[in-house]
Sequence to fold (767 residues):
Amino acid sequence: MAGRQDELAHEQAVVDGLYARLDALRARARGRLRDVRREGPSGSPQNRSERDAFATLYEDRTAQLDAVEDRLAFGRLDLAEGPAEAAGEGTVRYVGRIGLTDDDQRSLLTDWRAPAAEAFYRATSLQPAGVRRRRHLVTVGRKVTGLEDELLDLDHAVGEGAGEIDAASLSGEGALLAALAARRTGRMTDIVATIQAEQDRIIRSDLAGALVVQGGPGTGKTAVALHRAAYLLYAHRRLLERSGVLLVGPSRSFLRYIDQVLPSLGETGVVSTTLGELLPGIAATAVDEGAVAEIKGRLLWADVIRRAVRARERVPERDVRFRLDGHDLVIRRRDVRDAIARARRNHKPHNEARAGFVRDMLARLAEQYQLADGGDLTPEDRAIVLEDLRELRDVRVALNLAWFPISPKKLVDDLLSRPHRLAEAAPELTDAERAAVRRAPGAPWTESDVPLLDEAAELLGDDDAVARAEDAARAAERAEALQHARSVLASGAADGAMIPVDAETLAERFASTGPRLTTAERAAGDRGWTYGHVVVDEAQELSLMAWRMLVRRVPTRSMTIVGDVAQTSSQAGARSWSAALTPVLRDGWRLEELTVSYRTPAEVADTAQRVAKAAGLPASPLTAAREVPGAIVDTPVTSGGTAGAVVEGVGTLARELVGPDGAGRVAVIAAEPAVAGLRQAVAAALPGVLGAAEAARLRAQRPEDAQVTVLGPREVKGLEYDAVVLVEPADVAAGAGGWSDLYVAMTRPTQRLVVVHERELPDGFAG
Fold:
């Protein structure tokens, strides 16, 4: 025991030193930030922009250092060159959230993403990779509360004084099992201290190409995707810092659930959004029925939208005659046809190509005017004639009818609300399918409308001449700022202790005016922004049109795609990765599989697998990492009704699993029609179980913050709870998402699944 206490004291001293260094770096960054701000707004515009840029660097650094406070250091590697206590520098390596060095640039803490930390996750007794001992540090705040050791090179350790190692602590799985058993808080935590070898291999996979991570429930797909994003931002910072990383999740509640993970890993430059929010200026608030979503998700809509755009470029049925300055002029059908053909050959978007069409037609009309006038026009006179033609109402109407400027919203709204336009543009659809997608003019947008709007925006483009002129001016300013930024960096004016920044990024900050926008903020507001990498979670739900929309945003096709085709509930979603991705990525994707379920208790995982198999779902094989006694509780309804049984089950689980510290989450999952009634019943019972304050939290806008909540199966996708009360599994399976929804609902708990039912349980529940 004394040896163990000595080890704890030693590690506490090391951790104290690391936090002291972290505090010193924080104080330094904040001091420099104060110095920059103290200079005030005086000086030339260039000096002010430079101060703002450096202030931003110090703000970013401070935010990064603040975000890694919890579990700053979590691992130690004792390398095989010699015993830790006698060896020289480099034989003991501490691993943590970020890298830290002392003032002489000697390493104190190795960033978990660095190549030097790879062995912490991958070394085994068969392939120790030079590691003698791997130690997990268990900390609460800044206090070391426990150690978990793994001997990987036992022969060497015995020969080098391994007797000082507490053999009772050689589980190696303690940190992982403790994390799995911890109560949920409504927020996902990172797994940086417990990444497993199969997960680490995927996290550190190459940036190039699209990586598909298929895995059953609880295999850590989301955690792997987030840690991979953090790793790529570390390993490819010069590339990704300017272009950014896009993260697409299935719902806003899911994004709130994961929103602390990347900051805790020292990364904040990620744009997080849902598919329905991806297009700036569009709020997709409505939901399509499954069959309608499937129709709108078909790839044929790329051709439908293209035809709808072309329909706004048409030759008039007859020549249009008008007078100008006493001369009879004609907008000839053949001239319009030729001008349209010429404008199309430029391959510009519709609204941008319209400018060329109008110039062409005005030039032809000016030639008519010159012939009718009987003499050559001076350049000044010609300019006046062109302006008069442009302002003439008959000309404006005729040219607009021939090449109609239109917004994406107007185009898609007309297409879906006017049967003749859809019939003209979508001959592939049947009459019944066209009727199914028809909507009232101005109806709210749905998530499955967003890819159609994006397709329209891509084909229509922008027709703002003023904006183009401003873009040209900004380009000149950026070029000047870039030259200055290079000179600043070359002279060493940028602080070497700051986050790595290149001249292009610094130039953007120099040239900015008004409130400074981060890369993530600028990308989120720009439909045409292209990212260096895109992460898609619950990717099995995406339609082919949605994939086309996402691929447009990453020209390099560098993507991390995570999901499980057995959990597909959308009729527009994937039943196989090949069917979903090959049409848009061709052979530019590769597949990796996660096979170990860390979240789901073995009894629950096995039962869910049997149910999935009986239903014909393509469920991936799962190996559960742990057993939880009594993980499934079968509760047939005998008296008091279903609501009474649910309330009783919730009360029992709340008393057992919800702690006084606010940790612990219980979810009631039921078929959508039953959710409202059950929510009222549970809310009424909560004051007697958790107190009035918790009942108020249940009614909050953020249901994931409530310790007990009632949701439908689609709302819990991607989330996890300590316990789940599953109500009438047969009704859940009969809902819109079918057996996939039941599979999802069954696999949300980390500790207990209580099944409340009056009807017979579906096949597979019986052992």
Q: What stands out?
A: The radius of gyration is 31 Å. The chain has a mean pLDDT of 84. The longest helix spans residues 2-38.
